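Record type: ASSEMBLY
Status: queued
Input:
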Amino acid sequence: MILDSDSSKPIYVQISEWIEAEILRGHFTTDQKVYSQYQLADRFNINPATAGKGLTLLVEDNILYKKRGLGMFVAEDARERIKNKRKNQTLKKLIFELVLEAEYLDVDEEELVEMIKSIKRKGEVQ
Amino acid sequence: MSVIECKDVTKVYRNIAALKGVSFAIEENKITGVIGRNGAGKSTMLKILAGFLKETSGEVHVLSERPFNNLKVSANLIYVDDQMSLPTSLTLSDILECAGDFYRNWDKELANRLFDYFSFHPKQRHNNLSKGMKSTFNMIIGLAARCAVTIFDEPTIGMDEAVRKDFYRALLKDYIAYPRTILLSSHHLHEVEDLLEDVFIIKEGKTLLHVPLTDFKEMAIGLSGDLSIVNPLISDKEVYHLEENGIKRTYVVVENNFTEAELHEAKVKGVDVSPVSSSDLYVFLTNKTKGGIEDVFNRG
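Status: finished
Output:
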């Protein structure tokens, strides 16, 4: 993954989302150790403090837990927590933007729902 | 622990004040970006820290010592810029050899590997190098010296795009392996921002801002929309930038202390809310007027 410096998402948020994606993909499982801030810094070419901030974010959300001197590990139920978080934050935000744009274009609810359905039918999104 | 501490530092050249009372502290093993416009006082400040210049007034402490004429500071600090005066009678490989005698932590292997990677010839002389090659060679010395305090003043001058990238990569990798206090000056914030932990902005000889880079990136937000809607939203905010953006529309950059709900409401009212890149914000903050160059051409 390449980080986007100009994105509205701060780099450390992008780091934490990348780790979340790795957990969702099953690359990291419960109680497995994840990358250290230094490994992340090297991999993404960023300051280790920024990488550390991304990890801290995941600890605060109980997706990772810290073992002193050993590193960060995937918490139990991490996948569920990530999914819930994305549903309540990312998806909600996207839908908000979608509804806003629809209103701007005078697309009513029925038409909007139909558009979503047709995209699902065509299998454009799985 | 603070490795560098400055209090009310001024520097007057003849009768021009380059620094007008700068105070700051730099903690150990952080990479700090020293950012400012041309003539803001970056190099003067860094040269005072390196002990090359003596402050006119104020207090400067580097590794708990006053840096001017100080051997302890000289042995533990390296200042790299494009004007490093290296002996013209020595070949490049001789210079690396000598530098190794100077600096206690000198990594000879790293120096040689970088030397070969950037295709230097051992028999070349420093004064015959092109601008970019000179910067590259100086950078090798700066990295391999591995000083507790490492100052790079505009290190990428003349380097081509590929070498710049290589330099920043090398700097980060060596920093991860051997953490040390690094000051990196640049007027291109965009180029260095990912490497930095803190950013220190100098404007007209004074400290404008000294904050973690992540805070800097979140301190401002851009709003564009109808004047009648945007203006009430920003009445109590600090405005960093203001421009006309179509008929009765405006684009403003203001301090970002809106709540999620406030931003949500603004969006519903048709205001475009956008992030402000750190380099744009830096330009806005260091402009003399809120409209920048546009103001020169707006004669009312």
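Annotation: Chain B touches chain A at residues 30-31, 168-169, 172-173, 176, 190, 193-197, 212-214, 217-218, 264, 267-268, 274-275, 277-278 (CB under 8 Å).
Annotation: Residues 161-177 of chain B form the longest helix (17 residues).
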